[in-house]
Amino acid sequence: MVDLSDLLRDLADESAGLDALVAPLPAADWARPTPAAGWSIGHQIAHLAWTDHVALLAATDAEAFYATVTAAPDPTRMVDAGAEAFLAPPVDLLARWRAGRAALSDALVAVPAGEKLPWYGTRMSATSMATARIMETWAHGEDVADALGVVRPATDRLRHVAHLGVRTLGHGFAVHGRPVPTAPVRVELTGPGGETWSWGPADAADRLTGPLLDFCLLVTRRRHRADLALLATGPVADEWLDVAQAFAGPPGSGREPAGRGGVPA
């Protein structure tokens, strides 16, 4: 079982890496468009600041968290509205993001063992919340890196993103309106140092193998399956490549293959 302190350390490192990428940018570059339609680099950081804020509410004041949901004038635009509301000049936005993520880390440490925090359509433990924050920070960091033409090195922190991606197999099918499969899938992924990370029964008929990075790009819907070196064996594993989604909410349009205007892998 992953220790919360280890997760929070990895979350801090993931956040610091993205912080180092955006902090030196001139203000004009914060307006650069990213692969997410209608979102600039500023929107990406504002989204992270907003989600840290609502996660902090979930960890400290459940009623206030639920109030943000019920008060939303249009629930289908809640994510976009949150990013827009938190958008600010780079200096102010950076300060807010840094303060918010630090406060969230402290709050997650204080969550009593076994307590489940409210979230969108589910409840989760403090460790699951920290894992989700790593996933979000890395995924939106990819959007920022793509906008800047930067290739970030893969790290072992991606195992947390992959773990969440495996655990949300059923969710991916459900949000795409497809029956949730009952057959297990064996997942074997090769990490940046050549190590293997695996999930699921070793004798499962359905299997998914490939690079850890590529699987994380798939489950965060940052690349199309056609641009990834993932090998699916069996009907469930193959269909999963079309619907995998590690985050809450609707799937959106996803990314086009690189040959049709998508971001190259």
Characterization of this structure:
The chain is α+β, with helices and mostly antiparallel strands and 265 residues long. The chain has helices spanning 4-22, 41-60, 62-70, 78-86, 90-110, 126-148, 158-167, 169-175, 212-219, 235-243, and strands at residues 117-119, 122-124, 185-190, 196-199, 206-211, 231-233. The strands form two sheets. Strands 4-3-5-6 form a four-stranded mixed sheet. The chain has a two-stranded antiparallel sheet with strand order 1-2. Strand 3 (185-190) and strand 4 form a beta hairpin. Helix 2 (41-60) runs antiparallel to helix 6 (126-148). The model has no long low-confidence stretch (mean pLDDT 93).
Q: How many beta-strand segments?
A: 6
* Rg computed from alpha carbons, rounded to a whole number of angstroms: 18 Å
**Major sheet, described briefly?**
4 strands, mixed
Query: Fraction of residues in helices?
Result: 40-55%
Strand content: 5-15%
Distance between the termini: 32 Å
Bulk shape: globular
The average pLDDT value, as a whole number, equals 93
* Helix vs. strand class: alpha+beta
Low-confidence stretches: none
Tally of individual helices: 10
Reading the helices and strands in chain order gives HHHHHEEHHHEEEHEH
Strand numbers in spatial order across the main sheet: 4-3-5-6
